[in-house]
Amino acid sequence: MAQTLTIKSVLIVDGVGPSCAKILESHGLSVTSIPKISKEQLLKEIPNYNALVVRSATTVTPDVIEAGKNLTVIARAGAGVDNIDVAAATKKNIMVINAPGANAMSACELTCGLMFALARNVVPAATSLRAGRWDRALYTGTEICGKTLAILGLGRVGTAVASRMIACGMKVLVYDPFVSAQQCEALNTKKVELDEVWPEADYITLHTPLIESTRNFINKNTLSLCKKGVKFINVGRGGLIKEEDFLDALNDGTVGGAALDVFEEEPPKNPLTLQIIQHPAVIATPHLGASTKEAQVRVGQEIAEQLVNLIKPKTYNTPLAKVQ
Ligand SMILES: NC(=O)c1ccc[n+]([C@@H]2O[C@H](COP(=O)([O-])OP(=O)(O)OC[C@H]3O[C@@H](n4cnc5c(N)ncnc54)[C@H](O)[C@@H]3O)[C@@H](O)[C@H]2O)c1
């Protein structure tokens, strides 16, 4: 039987798109939107609400959860729940939900765009021309077609990247212990073990969650097994790459190029991370994977529809994305 909760009042913070409030209000919920909220104000306001919707600016710490005497659900309008203390919420019987699928297409398109940008030296060439130079020979690129791409993690984003890059003529290898060889074949990709990834791949793109088994996935050891000049794209999570080892590999040419959207610490302050960001072979973006107008609308809708389903089961087809 579908789970129902008491949700009458909802506090939306962090500038979640207006579609979220609109859907909730159309089902009779009382909604307050405070796009920018301080910790003090949140602690003062939270006892008045049954549901809290956050994006990434607000950190839902145990004291916020403690103060939320009437909270039944905390919703993250986005994929990860790094900014919510899920254990503290669960202890208080507060459900945590997220919107895992809403930004997959945006993350996929950034990944593919960065791959092309790396292949054709788009960023350094444009920077050089802006500075008044005309360095055509220096920025000769390579074609993507015919190259081998390894996708680590064939989930929502990885799958979307696979079909697009196959259409561009790449051979796609997949490493994902939770996906079968048949599923990979159905996508015209090949399931491989990790030891096949490193020597074969011209490009490696990371789309796994950051968990114990994937932390520092890319490290001194795995880098040493890679093709000289391999290119990496990380629109997954900071922490998948051991940054110290990665900088060494950039400096000695083991890694020929990298496009990084996520970092161990965000915004990055560590001098080592800053050296990676400033490295000439690197294109770095400030966690833009989900930053599109379409994804912002979709996350708000996906969260609102789940909240409505929690009080009026089966109103929308959107499945409940409960975080354990
Ligand atoms: N940069 C951004 O703004 C942005 C936007 C969207 C998603 N993301 C991140 O991208 C990643 C992928 O997102 P998604 O929506 O595709 O997630 P998903 O849960 O749909 O897919 C993750 C995949 O990783 C696989 N996996 C788990 N452990 C693995 C392991 N040890 N080795 C290899 N594969 C493993 C899973 O089987 C699954 O297929 C997540 O870390 C997510 O947080 C970042």
UniProtKB/TrEMBL annotation:
Show which residues constitute the signal peptide.
none
Please tell me whether the keyword Glycosyltransferase is annotated for this protein. Answer: no
Q: Which UniProt keywords apply?
A: Acetylation, NAD, Oxidoreductase, Phosphoprotein
The lineage's top-level taxon is: Eukaryota
How does this chain assemble? Homotetramer.
Domain named D-isomer specific 2-hydroxyacid dehydrogenase NAD-binding: residues: 113-289
Named from the GO MF annotations, one term is: NAD binding
- The name this protein carries in UniProt is D-3-phosphoglycerate dehydrogenase
Residues annotated as domain D-isomer specific 2-hydroxyacid dehydrogenase catalytic: 10-317
Q: Name the family.
A: Belongs to the D-isomer specific 2-hydroxyacid dehydrogenase family.
Pfam families this protein is in?
2-Hacid_dh, 2-Hacid_dh_C
